[in-house]
Amino acid sequence: MSTEAKTPETKAKLQLDTVDHVAVSVKNVQETVEWYSKNFDCTVKYQDETWGLVEFANIRLAFVLPEQHPPHFALLGDPAKYGEPKTHRDGTRSVYVKDPSGNNIEILALK
Amino acid sequence: MSTEAKTPETKAKLQLDTVDHVAVSVKNVQETVEWYSKNFDCTVKYQDETWGLVEFANIRLAFVLPEQHPPHFALLGDPAKYGEPKTHRDGTRSVYVKDPSGNNIEILALK
Q1: Residue B8 is nearest to which of A5, A31, A44, comparing CB atoms?
Q2: Chain B residue with the nearest C-alpha to that of A77
Q3: How far from each other are the two terminal CA atoms of chain B, in whole angstroms?
Q4: Integer Cα distance of A65 and A23 in angstroms
Q5: pLDDT tens, B10-68?
């Protein structure tokens, strides 16, 4: 039997956290970027041999090789709340945490 | 060596497709919904024993049991372009397709 959430929260959308990107494991970055570009309306933001980034209207998809990056999604927030942030080449900072099922969540602070 | 996309597309954001939700496999829906609600600013839209739906500022996350739904993400579009749509209880229609790496994409038409 379904039960609607008993304590519905009514936060305005502006108060909610933002999912910056979802990283999806792929076998071949170039093939994947071409396939998504052909089938959907999206913009290629970056690609090299090891990963690609494609922008949709509301979110970005990152295509990653599983040996380079784990599948994950990234939430904008303060990574220092969760550990020692790693600073990336582009100046962003992040920490990875796991949800109770072991899914990887990157807590990401933009510059 | 990185190579920026050679033919950058400059579609306006309004022209881009929208990712409606990302479905993440979890072990226990209630535990997961509680964990995300405690750690992040998000709104619980639905939950029962078999799946949950949590809204962030720009996208919704669905928490699914792997034996009930495959992990996937959903793009708003016309499912009939891809096959025979299945009509769901809430009136939405969708078709599942796979990208070249076997990732599941739900092409979803809202009511």
Answers
A1: A44
A2: B40
A3: 46
A4: 10
A5: 567 668 999 999 999 999 999 999 999 999 999 999 999 999 999 999 999 999 998 98
How many CB atoms are closer than 10 A to CB A64? 21
ipTM: 0.85
Count of CB atoms within 10 A of residue A1's CB? 4
| Residue A27: C-alpha distances to residues A64, B63, B101 (Å) | 8, 25, 6
Q: How far apart are the first and last CA of chain A?
A: 46
Contact B9 A36 (CB under 8 A): no
Q: Where are the alpha helices (DSSP H) in B1-111?
A: 29-39
Q: Give the mutation candidate from A49, A99, A105, A108 for the B interface (greatest B CB count, under 10 A).
A: A99
What is the Cα–Cα distance from A39 to B21, expressed in whole angstroms? 18
User: Are B104 and B96 a contacting pair, CB within 8 Å?
Assistant: yes
C-alpha of B31 from chain center: 20
